[in-house]
Amino acid sequence: MLNIQTVLKFYQDHKQFINNLISGSLPAMIPVIAGLLWWLRMRHRQRRIPPSTFPFQVIKPQSQDVLQRILGGDDNDPLADRNIAYQVRVANCSVRQELKQLLEKEESRWVLILGQSGLGKTREATELANHLNQEGWTVLFLKPGEWLDFPAQFPTEIGTDRKLLFFLDDLNQKMLRGREEISPEAEKNPVEQFRVPLQQRLLQALEKYEKFCGKAEIRVIATARNERISDFEGESTHWDKLQWERYPQLWNRFTRYELAKPEDDAIIELFSETIPNTNISAKVEDYPALARRNDRTFRNVVENLRTLKNNQQPLNLKNYRDTLKDTWEERYKKAVRKYPASRYIYDAVDLLQKFDIELQRFTVEATARMLVGGNFWQQLRYWWQIRIATNLLIHSERILKPCNGQIEAKAKQVEAGEHILRLSRLLLKLAERYPTQMQESLVNFGNEVSHLGRYKEALVSFDKALKISRQSNSILFLRDYALHNSKRKSEALTYYSKVITIKADDHEYWYNEGNTLYSLGKFEEAIASYNKAIEIKPDFHKAWFNIGLSLDNLGRKSKAIASYKKAIEYKPDLHEAWYNIALLLSSLGRESEAIASYKKAIEIKPDLHESWNNHGNILSSLGRKSEAIASYDQAIKIKPDYHKAWYNRSNILSSLGRKSEAIASYDKAIELKPNLHEAWNNRGYTLSNLGRFEQAIASYDKAIEIKLDKHEAWNNRGYTLSNLGRFEQAIASYDKAIELKPDLYQAWYGKACCYGLQSSIEQAIYSLQQAINLNPEECRERVKTDSDFDSIRNDEQFQSLLRG
User: Fold this and answer.
1) Which of 44, 221, 253, 338 has the highest CB neighbour count under 10 A?
2) What is the DSSP letter of 315?
3) Which of 273, 299, 322 is the last residue of a domain?
4) 279 with 252, same domain?
5) Which residue, 474, 543, 466, 549, is CA-closest to 510?
6) Are residues 247 and 188 in the same domain?
7) Closest of 165, 160, 104 to residue 139, by C-alpha
8) Which of 206-220, 507-521, 589-603, 653-667 has the lowest mean pLDDT?
9) Whole-structure pTM over 0.70, yes or no?
């Protein structure tokens, strides 16, 4: 919030100007003062928003090129998506109007268009975006390969009238790729994951936009494929790539709109309006039959027409392909028959895509020649063939912008790992000739091979990218990350030390040095580096947070809490700090404060299942068991495979006497983590309390199989065997528990009970004496009424033992 010091400082800095304004009339001052307060408030809010790049292409209201900027395509290509006339897919149904009506409703401001590949999802979304753009909405189109976060301030193109339509196309691939993205701003601390799933970032970013601009000013239109059958064996389906069950908070925000398949009339109209622009010979009377044969997608029509146009063939029932898959396979085979070198070009595109390298003519041709292999003369033979084949595939197949399924049509995929070393050398050579064009590809390649554990190639690639441009913190961060994982942390430290001598006033470099020291376990030195970063930038929340981590590792918990609180002061929504504070407070026995901190972490990030689980643990320790169960249930709702929450929930249910529910919950925990010996043991204890002794023994046996030295299971097993009258086995089980833990008075007492039931006086008294020595008060009180000793109760030695 604004404070009086801020206003007074602004007045001192602009005193003369403000005094001149005050001397004017009152009506003139009112809008000036209002504008001044608005400006101060905006500047304050901007300072609090975390910095980032702006990942969206901005299309201003009333733009005349919306279709061109989103759909792309050549002006001279009549079969480019934006040049094909829009078709009403179903008679008497306006998809655009239905989507617009959904977006206007308060409960459905986010809409997700679903449908199979080739239905025209992107075109429908683009038509809607174009329509709203003409009505005054700024369209923000998410660019490929950009890190999505909330920016420190909006680009100047957006202006002040913020009616923003976010356009998120092809979410399946974006979500899949988003699992491997690493923040270029190094937002995460050294012990956090460097990768944040796009689902999380998307929800957080869009909700922050809503909070900043107002929900009424934000609309979201997105597209995704909904096929539930995989294209290839072992590959995730397009539906699974979205991970609906794992991120319900994101997907529940969207209203789903299932896109209808085009009717025959729409396909006929597409033929009628498109073919005259392509010089393809066709008979109008064939259109209805062709429409019936078509696989109910627009794309199949377009790709058929493209093939016919490139081959200068007429359109007829004989040469029309019914489905797109067959079309791609046949076109691949045809290209290889005409130019055998085409297979190397397809493989080159496949390989480059695997490493996220930009598809440019020079990268594709060079990679294809690399894949040919052989000696100099074989290379020379294919050099010209590859060039000719590339010409064909660029113009006829648009190979540099392949469609879904196009590259896969060759059936056999390239094994990426086999070509990393040669591809690395090739990229370095290309970077010498095309430095600017290759920098991003070098970074992407380094990032991808780093994930595969090929850190040497990753570091070489990052170093080459840095030679092209040294002003890139993101490359430095990725290089540091690779150095850490390659166990060359000392080299990373030396590297940052050299950089800091050049840029001693750059807080990011001190921060990175601190991260490296932290990863080496040099926590005191790390704190010193983080403090240097804070001297330069006092509000640098990441450094404050990492100081907290370092202090925590040094066992200085109170100071760690203070440092985390400092991070929160500058970034109130830093849920990691609230979470860590809660952990420390709990370890210090300050449960009430810990609960408040967990609640704050959950308020900021409701889907943080660990917070819900730990929150439940503290509630349980305070005896608030019903609340604890509710907290565990929430953790399970967010992450159904979170075995810890299932296990903790089971223990509470058992303590409340809800034994059957507890066993079912233990079973679920064990299903998720079969080697969870604690669950097997506690499950056995609960079964025993229900009188299901044989099942209990089997459960204890499983716990012991997993952890042979688990004395609790041996002791509990002895008790259960005793209940079945199998005293010798019970005594043997108690003996094993005592061997593992000689001071386990419960096992000594259990042995005494077994001997008492067998009227073995000496053994009973000896075992009972050991139990009393270990816990005199409890054992003497318990033995007074224990019927297991009735057969020896009148024995003089027994009575003497009771008297002490």
Assistant:
1) 221
2) B
3) 322
4) no
5) 543
6) yes
7) 165
8) 507-521
9) no
